[in-house]
From TrEMBL, chain A:
GO terms for molecular function: branched-chain amino acid transmembrane transporter activity. The chain crosses the membrane at residues 15-37, 69-91, 131-155, 162-180, 211-230, 261-279, 334-358. InterPro entries: ABC_transp_permease (IPR001851), ABC_transptr_urea_perm_UrtC (IPR017778), LivM-like (IPR043428). It holds the Pfam family BPD_transp_2. Keywords: Cell membrane, Membrane, Transmembrane, Transmembrane helix. CDD domains: TM_PBP1_LivM_like. Its main location: membrane. It is a multi-pass membrane protein. Residues 367-387 are annotated as: Disordered. PANTHER family: HIGH-AFFINITY BRANCHED-CHAIN AMINO ACID TRANSPORT SYSTEM PERMEASE (PTHR30482), SLR1201 PROTEIN (PTHR30482:SF4). It is found in: Cell membrane. This is Amino acid/amide ABC transporter membrane protein 2, HAAT family.
Automatic annotation (TrEMBL), chain B:
It comes from Albimonas pacifica. The keyword Transmembrane helix applies. GO terms for biological process: amino acid transport. Residues 1-19 form the signal peptide. PANTHER family: ABC TRANSPORTER PERMEASE PROTEIN (PTHR11795:SF447), BRANCHED-CHAIN AMINO ACID TRANSPORT SYSTEM PERMEASE PROTEIN LIVH (PTHR11795). It is found in: Cell membrane. The keyword Transmembrane applies. This is Amino acid/amide ABC transporter membrane protein 1, HAAT family.
């Protein structure tokens, strides 16, 4: 009941409601256009495009997660790729166990790479992943737990601003190095791949792909609702207060570290779910997902879409990745120029992103955050020195 | 004293003359013995011939024996033994060309046991070589083999040896042989003593080999010797680790110091810092290419020419960045971080487009290549020079910041921007010049790093996170902090590596820094007082 009322709070804004309907509509439309419309029709969506669009939606979810902490809490995380990848690995481990005896070596218990490394038994942290429900739990629990521990220490010690950004980057870099090691038991350099099916359904079949796409859209809409409910609640107001003037909020009697920690953990769990939906659709998860560059790219999706708007970052992620697909197909050499230019132009000229532009065009009063990250009325040196 | 030296010289000359005379007398004998390879019957025949060459004891046979070991000693169809060179057949004794390369050469077959026999014979023969370095390595080969049959030639060589270093090596070789063959406890004890004084890996191997078959008192003596060597080796190993650590630390310091300046003064996180390092490395490449093509004689000076150029190139790019982008983002450090990341992508891709995605070759000048031994440590010249260079950069920067007027203004702006501005300092220009300075320093770091790392468009990526760690660990806006931070992380990394492996060691360091920032969010050498607020 309380949960229902809480979520209904997220629907107060018509923009959120419309966006959710649009996302769910796409979630139904694309599979229909893929399965029901004959390939000869101009409206047919080709088979290979379904997982590609699904990938965009996963990225959108990651950008939404990032917006929750960056846009509403002022934490610029350069390590959200780590949560995304951890969720992906948890799902990948389940898919790996489902391969069973169909692997190259045909071992009923050990995945191929373990047989290859001459391992005799399953490491303890792989126990339980043969159960889908357990894997789903881990998809949320592992990133959530890492975020909780990391945030607990970081926020308590009042690590803020660029320092926090740098240690989040160090975190994902450390995980990158760790997952590259064969001894870790996660497939090393090659990661987890060659998945066969999920819950007994063939991953290559059109129906399963469409189902996955719909699920992704559904979870994206759900996460959007949750994020809207959180930011629209009283807690959301305090969250923004912490973003705009952390010291002042503390003096008013709130505990900024706990307030930040909640949003941080929720955001990490969302990123984990995004990663878990991403893996069955692209068919591979490897340590490259932990690369700091990936996490920073997520930030640019959020920035382009417009941070602090929830809907904007989802659009930003889809937009940037569609551009990336187009560039890598047509002008592969210029993609990095375009991406780099996007970083610069967005920060210089579009601090509120595309969402800000649209708002202006519709003449609505912009509610996006001010450009500054710390107490806004302070000079440069103070902004960097923190509180 | 001069008299003594003249005397020594005379003796050496006389010995040399004697050796030369004997050589010419033996040449025919050696040559005849080598010819027996042609008719040698199977492996045992070859072994007998090698033994005969060893018995003659003339270094002239070494050339033929080497060729035999490398499967280049051949028998021509008319039964002559020759060495098959790259494009001609050579005389096995003199090495002069005797014939054109012809077909149907028959190889003299050898096996592994013969190969080791060849090595031992060669070392026994080279014990009399003119070059002390050759004699020394011959003694070392015998030391490792410890073959009792070589005791006599080694003792003979020891009696004739003048050079104290070679004498010591020969004594050790004698000791190793005696340890392996003697039954007399006194001799064995003395041998263990001599060997353990040698104290290197080879000595440890010999003693461990002896320990396995020794019993009673002798075993205890061997244990003592082993322990002494192991302690010594452990100390040298620690020394080597410290050296590696200092070397890595100075690289980290070089990569990070420019970042520390910009971050400290302007609070700007320059994500394109690594690309400034890369630009410096590519400047070195361009300078070397130009020199290779037009002024080859200048090659040894290429790095010194590249240094100022790299400073200017990277500094200029930095200046453009500051004026064009960063200036508009002051007070928004997180946005600056993103914009500079965008610049880094563009610079990387630009370099990739211009120079190609592959590694470019940057050469070492002659004074930077090679290595030298210090006890049990091996030190490469390039690393040594980089450490020196890092110290030089540190001192120069310290001087610039503490003594120059720009340095004074920089410190003023770091401490209190508004007050500095009120005192008439043009803070925007200080910012621009600081950024250019930081970028320029990154550029000259790139010159140094081009000597030890691959020059590729990804060069900067590899350093950026490490540089951040150093800056954050050492404390912002403090040169000493960066120095201590870089060296500490370097040494810690190298000490963790043997226990945890390179990757795990690095992960541990990262985790340590993440935890460290929780304890001291402003780093090791934090700014104190009003500057913090």
């Amino acid at each position: 009941m309380i949960l229902g009322r809480f979520l209904a709070g997220g629907l107060k804004s018509p923009v959120i409601l419309i966006s959710m309907l649009v996302i769910l509509g796409i979630g139904v439309l694309v599979p229909v256009l893929n399965l029901a419309v004959p390939p000869s029709s101009p409206f047919h969506v080709a088979d290979h495009l379904v997982p590609l669009y699904g990938k965009y939606l996963c990225y959108g979810m990651a950008a939404l997660a990032l917006d929750l902490v960056w846009g509403y809490c002022g934490i610029l995380s350069l390590g959200h790729g780590a949560f995304f990848a951890l969720g992906g690995y948890a799902m990948g481990m389940h898919l790996m166990r489902e391969i069973g005896t169909r692997g190259v070596y045909g071992d009923p218990i050990l995945p191929d790479f373990m047989v290859f490394l001459n391992w005799k038994e399953l490491p303890w942290f792989w126990y339980g992943f043969d159960s889908f429900l357990f894997a789903c739990l881990m998809v949320m629990l592992v990133p959530g737990l890492l975020a909780f521990i990391f945030g607990w220490f970081a926020f308590r010690s009042r690590v803020t601003g660029v320092y926090l950004s740098i240690i989040t980057q160090a975190m994902t870099y450390a995980l990158l190095l760790a997952f590259f090691r064969n001894d870790m038991g996660f497939g090393g350099n090659n990661g987890l791949t060659d998945f066969k099916d999920v819950l007994g359904y063939d991953l290559q079949s059109g129906q399963v792909r469409s189902a996955l796409f719909f699920l992704t859209a559904f979870f994206l809409a759900l996460n959007l609702l949750i994020a809207a409910a959180i930011t629209g609640s009283k807690y959301g107001k305090i969250l923004r207060a912490v973003r705009d003037a952390e010291a002042r909020t503390r003096f008013l009697g709130y505990r900024p570290e706990n307030i930040k920690l909640f949003a941080w953990v929720v955001s990490a769990v969302m990123a984990g779910i995004a990663g878990a939906l991403y893996v069955p659709q692209v068919g591979i998860i490897n340590p490259g997902e932990f690369a700091p560059a990936n996490s920073i790219e997520m930030v640019v999706w959020t920035a382009v879409g417009g941070r602090g708007t929830l809907v904007g970052p989802i659009g930003g992620a889809v937009l940037v990745n569609a551009a990336k697909s187009w560039f890598t197909g047509v002008l592969p050499e210029y993609w990095l120029f375009a991406l780099g230019g996007l970083f610069i132009l967005t920060t210089l000229f579009l601090p509120e992103g595309v969402a800000g532009l649209i708002r202006k065009a519709f003449g609505r009063r912009a509610k996006a955050p001010k450009g500054k990250d710390e107490e806004t009325d302070q000079p440069v040196a103070d902004a960097t020195a923190g509180e | 004293m001069p008299l003594l030296r003249i005397l020594a010289l005379a003796v050496t000359l006389a010995l040399g003359a004697l050796a030369a005379e004997r050589a010419s007398a033996d040449e025919a004998q050696v040559s005849a013995a080598i010819q027996k390879f042609a008719t040698a019957d199977g492996f045992s025949g070859v072994e007998a011939t090698i033994q005969e060459l060893g018995a003659i004891g003339d270094p002239l046979a070494v050339r033929a024996l080497r060729a035999l070991g490398e499967n280049e000693l051949k028998v021509t169809p008319d039964g002559a033994v020759v060495i098959e060179g790259a494009d001609a057949l050579l005389d096995p004794v003199t090495g002069e060309t005797v014939a054109e390369k012809g077909p149907r050469l028959e190889r003299i077959r050898i096996k592994n046991s013969i190969r080791s026999m060849i090595d031992e014979t060669i070392s026994a023969l080279t014990l009399r070589a003119a070059d002390p370095v050759v004699r020394m390595s011959a003694a070392d080969t015998i030391f490792a083999a410890a073959d009792p049959e070589q005791l006599e030639p080694v003792q003979a060589a020891l009696a004739a040896e003048q050079d104290p270093d070679v004498r010591r090596r020969l004594e050790q070789a004698v000791a190793a042989i005696q340890l392996a063959s003697s039954d007399d406890p006194e001799i064995i004890r003395a041998s263990i003593e001599v060997i353990s004084q040698r104290g290197d890996q080879a000595a440890l191997g010999v003693l461990l080999g002896y320990r396995n078959q020794a019993t009673g008192e002798m075993a205890d003596a061997a244990d003592e010797g082993i322990e002494a060597i192991e302690t010594r080796l452990a100390m040298w190993q620690a020394g080597q680790n410290i050296w590696y650590g200092i070397s890595l630390g100075s690289v980290l310091f070089l990569a990070a110091i420019g970042l520390a300046i910009t971050f400290g003064v302007m609070g700007v996180i320059n994500m394109a810092h690594g690309e400034m390092v890369m630009l410096g490395a590519y400047t070195t490449f361009v300078v070397q290419e130009t020199i290779r093509n037009s002024f080859p004689w200048l090659f040894d000076w290429s790095l010194l020419i590249a240094l100022p150029l790299a400073f200017l190139v990277a500094g200029f790019v930095g200046l453009i960045m500051e004026r064009g982008i960063i200036r508009h983002l002051y007070g928004r450090p997180l946005e600056t971080l993103l914009a500079t990341w965008g610049v880094s992508l563009i610079l990387q891709q630009a370099v990739r487009t211009i120079f190609g995605p592959n590694n470019r070759e940057v050469g070492n000048p002659s004074w930077m290549s090679g290595a030298f031994e210090l006890g049990e440590m091996s030190i490469t010249w390039s690393r040594l020079w980089i450490v020196c260079f890092a110290l030089f950069v540190f001192v120069a920067l310290l001087f610039a910041i503490n003594r120059s007027s720009l340095g004074l203004q920089m410190r003023a702006v770091t401490q209190n921007r508004r007050m500095a501005s009120a005192m008439g300092i043009r803070t925007p220009w200080v910012d621009a010049l600081t950024f250019a300075l930081g970028s320029g320093i990154a550029g000259i770091a790139g010159v140094a790093l081009s000597q030890i790392d691959n020059v590729s468009p990804n060069l900067g990526r590899g350093y950026i996170i490490d540089s951040f760690m150093v800056v954050v660990f050492g404390g912002v806006g403090n040169l000493w902090g960066t120095l201590v931070g870089g060296l500490t992380l370097g040494v810690a990394n190298k000490f963790l590596e043997p226990y945890a492996g390179a990757v795990l060691g690095k992960i541990l360091i990262l985790v340590f820094i993440i935890l460290f920032i929780q304890r001291r969010p402003r780093g090791l050498f934090a700014l104190k007082g009003r500057a913090v607020e």
